[in-house]
Amino acid sequence: MEQTFRAVNQTPGILIWRIEKMELVLVPEKSYGNFYEGDCYVLLCTKKVGGSLSYDIHYWIGSESSQDEQGAAAVYTIQLDDFLGSAPVQHREVQHHESSSFCGYFKQGIIYKKGGVASGMRHVETNSSDVQRLLQVKGKRKVTAKEVEMSWNSFNLGDVFLLDIGKTIIQWNGPDSNRQERMKGMLLAKDIRDRERGGRAEIGVIEGDAEKNSPLLMEALTSIIGERPAKLPSGTSDDQADQQQMAQVTLFHVSDADGEMKVMEVATRPLVQDLLNHDDCYILDQGGVKLFVWKGKRANKAERQAAMSRALEFIKLKGYPHTTNVETVNDGAESALFKQLFQSWTVQNQTKGLGHTHTVGRVGKWVTRSRTGGPDITNFIWRIENLELAEVDPKTYGYFYGGDCYIILYTYEVNRKKSYILYIWQGRHATQDELAASAFQAVTVDQQYGGEPVQVRVTMGKEPRHFMAMFKGKLVIFEGGTSRKGGSDPEPLVRLFQISGTDSTNTKAIEVPAQAASLNSNDVFLLKNQGTMYLWYGKGSSGDERAMAKEVSTVLGRGSFSAEIMAEGQEPAEFWNLLGGKAPYANDKRLQQVVQDHQPRLFECSNKTGRFIVTEVTDFTQDDLIEDDVMLLDTWDQVFLWIGNEANEVERKESVVTCQEYLRTHPGARDCDTPILLVKQGFEPPTFTGWFTAWDPTKWSDGKTYEQLKEELGEVTSLEIICLPNISSLSQKHLSDEDFQFIFGMSKNEFSSLPQWKQLNIKKKNKMF
Fold it and tell me: Which part of the chain is the HP domain (predicted)?
């Protein structure tokens, strides 16, 4: 295996092999993204995660490949998995039904090519101009291009087509194709030009709904594939599974102890991690759209190696299409996609503070900078009073009452530009009228600031980290009551607060029932009556938690008196009397607190077809945020909705409903009160941009639109290089040296030095002689 996989190293990136005569042959990097329909391939993706490497192996099955080639690809996948210590996640990919993660490796698109090894087809070498093909481009996110018959019979009104004749590529955009599809078609054309032709091809664009604006290009197109028919058929929509279908998850235990495969249903949504036994293998069925095979670390080697074949048997047993996507994951090395199907997923050896570098590192650093001469930050808070906005006394900033709703305008400055976040905090005991008024008044404030603020709806008790960070460790949430004058019941004689947090960016005090049963050995509590405060340290609380609790106690004491500190087990009688007497409470000290392990994920959301569809964007970057889209960034403890400037009005209005639908139908049985942040293009806060590598703040002002990219191609290059008016009546000697060079890209002498067959082929392609 060392010889077979000699190309494998520790460098992040992808490697691709093709099955040729049952052997693995490395595919040149310049041909990445090109797949022959008659072949099978194995792809290895290596990523660096922290200080270690993670691997994904995909084996791709062409629609015209043989059973022997498919079997060989599966065997090599198992061998590569063994070679890498059984750490990789394995994926089975079938042509036209590839997973989002597979398509994510080829941002410019995948090209399906006719033929394969058996027919002597080789991967295109760079600068090859001896090409004649018509490509049908489909998809916005999962872009694929398939070679089709070079005839108008292949065209339709809904897709984008590329006529590739070597030194020239003509893009024809169907009238019903959208701008994003046209953009993707152009990027694919430029990729072919740059990667396969060494930049030596010209690109021309025809808009199918304005063909008369490109007469020369149309003349060239028709001269090659014939006269355009008066009518073309409508396009077909891409077949995608909706979110409701993807939410139907079922876990099965699979065994073949007596030689016959037996499938037993274990559980349905919501799934919990404890259902998985390390001694066994399981199949997780996601509504028939995708299958996951989980291999327990203590399952025997034969069972582990047979995992993929068991999945294929399961597909037959259930009557699912043979194209169903399959992913196998190893116990302890599960993919993010697999883990998010469970209600909770924890890493047993990972403690708080060691793993969540995204939130802690990025948000924490931003807040720290703001306090040390960085962005200028100010807050302004209103309370909903009589359904109108009433200013809150700055002296009470950080106090939130469960009977109120608040609007918080957070202003910060980056690169001398003011930016805004608008929080709508809704108390648990606020009236329906107040809840509605808070949403209405937020819109009013948003409009006063030119629609620039990022809007965040915060449900009481679900405050996101960046909200807590604003109050620098002095956030206090009262269970009920109101902060308005004369509108609150008398303050209770005794109040108990549970204080959680380890630094000024994640600390808050929440009021809980003043009784002993509310205590927990893992936390710090503050007990307060009219003249006394007790700070109670649970035996499982950390030094950081205790230090932050002291800070909060100064706020709750309002400077009039300090708290008496006590450790669990050393409480005076007065402490228990204030709580109504001793009572059992949670007192098991945690040995090691596990943290939730969820990676950020980006989705495109759409209900344009009448079905709610969520399409994941893998290995996402800022470039995946498209102006006419609504995108959803899920970081688990909060969800961002990014609204592109060109998103239609319906999408804008329904975006929050769309997000709530996403949470409601999530396979992991998500909390529907998860904070939702509405982010507008060009006004992204650091809490959003921090999830993207190398965020470019000038992209929206300096970035190029489809129209700009099209304009860059130029008017002249669009089509004098193929034909000139009545040029078919000319001969080689009638052309000036300058015209000849311009049309053919070479001098007359260079042309004359070519073999006769080559000259004839060039003449034939250009329809000139």
Answer: 698-769
